[in-house]
Write a structure and sequence with these properties.
Strand content of chain A: 15-25%
Structural class of chain A: alpha+beta
Number of helices of chain A: 13
Helix content of chain A: 25-40%
Largest interface: A-B, 77 and 77 residues
Number of strands of chain A: 24
Shape of chain A: globular
Largest sheet of chain A: 10 strands, antiparallel
Oligomer: homodimer
């Protein structure tokens, strides 16, 4: 059985489950298809233009020309943005075969490759004339972090076009350099920002180089012993150097760092059959998702260190929920889904894709949210289209940031969306029996083709999901032998029904719904997920959301924006009436709300001493529309909240 | 009329109202007397020992010896800690005349003075061999900030012992240097951290040098035009360089900076009769106290920039409420009280003194809180007595910090507490008529002696305030002419009564209660303030406190600590029953609380999606004690909250 095209995917772990290749599912527009098309049509060039304009691409040219100096533009990690864009281009080309995308990719690679030193070292910030020496600042220098993104780009490329490629060669030499410098006989260091681990592990798989996996393992094991020099006033938890991965119970510190590290640790655990390490990440996932994750799937409660907070510390207004942390969370959950087969990981992937990743890009693909708070207290300022913006100011999507990690991270994720949509169990696994089983984990209209033992299972999916909850799956082609099909029933979809050929309609519980076999070409299976708007109450331990309720619709978290309120009503005056069920409205909902008068002005005492709030006394009631959270701030500066007060 | 001893006070503004000198009120122990005694007995030497141990004092010796170099210990602002301690020693000596305190003061001054350059420049971080040049980093260098604290120390000294003093001479030369360098004909710079303004203005008053006031005015007016180079990723609002003081509507950015600047701006406004500038600070105070101030009087909602948040952004767990911001808030409110006579400023001084300033020091005066959050989610870690601690980790008072501004700020404030206790209106002012009026703004047992026209008004105050609300004032001596007496009725003291000789007992409304005259020696006046525990409801716009209530007792904010809960009950299980009035208990209160079961464990969804919280179903009810907030964390690591959920 040849699986070449099926292996064009970010994660190719050993084990019973494997994802589809990015080209194995062709989207017919729809929610993700449109985002993916905008990504290719607008975002790639947008990122290239900014990186050219700011000199981040020219940094490579200067290294090649020997003209480096103290005046290098960009942060120490700006190389990584180039690599993430290369990864996006590689997936796009791998998925579509578009020669223009390939040409763009090659042009950038030529500039990158020219900057590589003879011994494989490749970095434009360190190690050249007028610059600090190599690996002189492991805590903040981000050299290995940049290399990790280089390797991830090469993973995409080797799977799309094979190992005979200039970027793949560059990455191989860079990885070899890292193994020489930091191997068991080399320096015992680690990078302040994890990423090299996940890059090495996957490149090891892609090139069948166990040395790379071993180096990733070394980096994972070295972490947590307090060897990194402190950064500013932050302690070792900031970069997860406080507790070894296998001993930690929860994610803490800088969220993107914690999650990239966790992704790499899963890779290492799977490849080395280290069940203890895998169980550690599963444990961290469970507690962090329960106690340190927002309704949107967003992670990171604090601006101070872009990090996780304490358990239950989930302020909506100061939620950081960095877009990149959403991308990283998808990386971790997808790996755990392949490793365990548990549906909860697919549920979180969906929640995060719809409500963090899809929230970041503006409709035109040329501006992005960096932070994704669940409440905006003051309308966002106007963003100038030519400005490099501060990274975490909420309320308005910005074209580029001083630290601009999010645009390219969105680009590579959207370009490879298909890789997270379905997986195959080749038998003897999840579904019992020896027959292969194909599982749809995410829903989008299109044509899916999964190579399995005995041939191909080809499916046609028709759906307007998430606007509508009906997912109609037509079996187009079946393999010679038996094959199973499973559909995910999301955790929120109580009352979902499954209609099967000749089997009528039955209610299916959240989890994996198995389609009774045998499958035959022409079979039509319909999953009906209830997407009527529903109230979602906060866990009472989330202090910052006490006395509020949110509204969700299918996988979409909804939001109330000030621009949707009647004239003269301020967002802080609105109380949602939970006794009146929200009704569907466009893609969102209409909710019944009361308008309460604002308290009198100050008498010179702090805000908590002016007397009892008491119940709302106004009998005014209005219906106000909610919009999907991912679409907020599309109509000019506004204030916004996801959780609306009920008291 | 000679007012020499009465002028030993931090603020000596022109205008109808003047504070007492620090020696004009002798405390008999009591709440503030005990803190003041511990301050003198333990805190001064504690600070000196740490500054000696860390080399912050020796930095002055090295400048004098010409042995400076790149290896200077301490932050760039460590000189200011020495100056704040000198200020504390000067007040203590000025109040008590203790020769040992004077000797300590002189020893430190000798080391400081030896480091002054010939032209008056004095700084151990800049301007000497192996160090960066003078004023090369106005944004972050803190040179003028340090000088400002030097001048404040000299203000205390010149008022205690007169101008013929070594520190006063040092300060005069330093101030002259600043005027030469940054005067109208000099460099147009400002300091990233305001403080020089308030130092120059008051030294100008103390030495009758209008040039210093003019220089303070220049610094205030220059601010707000975006001339400071950015610090890290923070915008100009961080150091109030976004909007000119006279145009701003609210405090924003770094709280201590905003408040020191406001204090200096009031001084300048009063001295230059700039009503527009004064009105601007009053406006900023009103909005900031209404919308950006905690129940404790604490200011600063964000760790990220140690700054104010948006309006109504007042998270209890991530409240920064830096001790130094409390000190600075008292400085601002006291100045506005003298400038306007409005009682609200005295109310906030009391709230902040009891619930921020008094919260910081441990009972032994040798450890301090830096941040003062209103909720502690995880028990504080143990603090090692010999460790330099990170500055803002909550839950445990620490002996010293890497940035250790708070201990010396507490020391100088406690040493001069009397200066904020009462003020004199010399006639034609507040109370109408031409007779002088003495107003008690804060209450503590002791003997007060106010020089007024025609002699002295001497009062004996007997009270156990704040443990008890009865304040008994005996008139001991009256001046030859008429004199008025007023007592503050705090804003929370609805139902207070005043008993006067022959006048029976009448209810007095919050505000200034005037004692009917004429006053005679031997008269006894009793103010009864109701200090039964009371519920305080949050303003409904403070989202982070929705569905909770706090309990206060007199001026004290109370707190619920986990160590006071029954075995097996977690703090997050407790719901306060607001229908049962809190009862008095020790210095705090007993409240009726229900204990609710904790939700089930995670099903792999974020915390806000596990279902409705609903009302508490448990019928368990227990009485739990609350302690004064300023005494929390005295019994080992615990979790804590000021606002307790009711739903």
């Amino acid at each position: 059985m040849t699986l070449t095209s099926s292996r064009v995917r970010p994660v190719d772990a050993p084990g019973p489950r494997r994802g589809l290749g990015v080209g194995d599912l062709t989207l017919d527009g729809g929610f993700w298809g449109r985002l993916q098309e905008t990504n290719a049509r607008a975002t790639f060039q947008h990122c290239l233009d900014w990186m050219e304009r700011l000199g981040w691409l020219a940094n490579f040219d200067r290294v090649a020309a020997g003209t480096t100096g103290p005046d290098r533009p960009g942060w120490q990690f700006s190389d990584s943005e180039v690599y993430k864009l290369l990864e996006a281009l590689a997936w796009e080309h791998g998925r579509t075969g578009d020669p223009a995308v390939d040409a763009t990719f090659r042009k950038v690679v030529d500039r990158v490759a020219a900057a590589q030193d003879d011994d494989g070292y490749l970095n434009t910030c360190f190690g050249h004339p007028g610059r600090p020496g190599r690996y002189t600042d492991l805590s903040s220098g981000h050299e290995l972090y940049c290399t990790g993104h280089l390797l991830q780009a090469a993973v995409a490329r080797v799977r799309a076009v094979g190992p005979d490629d200039r970027l793949v060669e560059v990455a191989r030499r860079a990885a070899d350099h890292v193994c020489r410098e930091f191997g068991a006989d080399g320096a015992p260091g680690i990078c302040g920002h994890p990423e090299i681990e996940v890059g090495l592990a996957e490149l090891g798989r892609a090139l069948d180089e166990p040395r790379y996996t071993e180096q990733a393992r070394l980096f994972v094991e070295r972490r947590g012993h307090g060897t990194l020099a402190p950064v500013a006033l932050l302690g070792p938890a900031y970069f997860q150097d406080d507790v070894p991965v296998r001993h930690a119970d929860v994610w803490r510190g800088h969220a993107v760092r914690a999650l990239y590290l966790a992704a790499g640790a899963v890779d290492v655990a799977v490849d080395t059959h280290d069940d203890d390490l895998r169980a550690a990440v599963e444990r961290q996932w469970a507690r962090s998702v329960e106690r340190r994750t927002y309704l949107t799937g967003g992670m990171g409660s604090r601006h101070q260190d872009e990090g996780f907070g304490d358990d239950w510390e989930l302020p909506p207004d100061r939620a950081y929920c960095e877009t990149c942390a959403g991308v990283a969370s998808v990386m971790v959950s997808w790996r755990l889904l392949l490793a365990t087969g548990e549906v909860r990981y697919a549920d979180l992937v969906e929640r995060t894709l719809f409500n963090v990743v899809a929230t970041s890009p503006r409709a035109d693909g040329r501006a992005f949210f960096y932070a994704n708070p669940l409440q905006q207290r003051e309308p966002g300022a106007d963003v100038l289209p030519d400005a490099v913006n501060p990274r975490a100011e909420g309320g308005v999507r910005a074209p580029w940031f001083d630290v601009s990690c999010c645009p390219t991270n969105v680009a590579r994720t959207l370009a490879s969306w298909q890789a997270y949509a379905a997986f195959v169990d080749d038998g003897g696994g999840t579904a019992g029996g020896d027959a292969p089983v194909v599982t749809l984990a995410q829903y989008a209209a299109g044509d899916l083709r999964a190579e399995v033992a005995g041939g191909v299972l080809a499916l046609r999916v028709d759906t307007a999901y998430p606007a509508d909850g009906a997912v109609r799956v037509t079996v187009v082609e079946v393999p010679a032998g038996p094959v199973g099909l499973r559909l995910r029933v999301p955790h929120w979809a109580a009352g979902a029904t499954l209609s099967v050929p000749g089997g009528g309609t039955t209610t299916v519980a959240p989890g994996w719904a198995e389609v009774p076999g045998p499958l035959r070409a022409g079979d039509v299976v319909t999953l009906d997920l209830p997407v009527a708007p529903r109230l979602t109450w906060p866990d009472p331990r989330v202090d910052a959301q006490r006395g509020t309720v949110a509204v969700e619709r299918g996988p979409l978290v909804l939001a109330l924006e000030s621009v949707d309120l009647p004239d003269g009503v301020a967002l802080e005056q609105v109380r949602l009436d939970p006794d009146v069920a929200p009704r569907a409205h466009d893609d969102g909902a209409l909710v019944r709300a009361r308008v309460v008068p604002l308290p009198e002005g100050s008498d010179g005492t702090p805000p908590s001493a002016t007397g009892p709030a008491g119940p709302a006394t106004s009998s005014d009631a209005v219906d106000v529309p909610l919009v999907p959270y991912h679409r907020w701030a599309e109509r000019g500066p506004s204030t916004m909240r996801v959780f609306v007060p009920t008291v």
